[in-house]
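EI: anyone free to look at a 187-residue chain?
SC: sure, send it
EI:
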Amino acid sequence: MMLPIYLDRDGVINENRADYVKNPSEWIPLPGAISAMAALSKAGHPLVVVTNQSGIGRGYYTSEDVNLIHDVMQNAFSSAGITHVPILFCPHHPDNKCACRKPETGMIDRAKTDLRLPEGGWMIGDAHSDIELGRKSGLTTILVLTGRGRVQLEMIKAENLAMPDYVTDSLVSALEILLPSTPLRRL
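SC: here you go
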């Protein structure tokens, strides 16, 4: 089994919205993101989506709304040839101080146990909380500059926080890190 790849949702796979992705019509995949996930899946990497959905705890939408969004995502994955991708989400308000809200490790711990995933792997996100989750979980981290990535990178630098292992433009360009091509031999 290849190492697992954990992905944030909003800003990595689909467009991020300041007012939250609240229903299926607001879920808009980023260009090339689903194809990139298909390439990773085809290479044998187990994929797991881990996403904070505090809009539930804030009363902006319900768990049922999130499940409907995830049904649309699963259909997009399936259309690209990706078998079921587990999607774990934290529904809690940030003030709840739960064990599953990123950067806490609850979602990764649960995925490793429930899905029998090996230690190690990758965490791809567009926020410092994703990078910190990856660090706490012993994963190699990639910050993508889509979504909140550019602003978060500046904040990380300004506050002298731990840098991600890699920074890249998008999930598509992350493929160069995750699936490096075999170099051509010169004759």
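EI: The two ends are 34 Å apart (CA to CA).
SC: 👍
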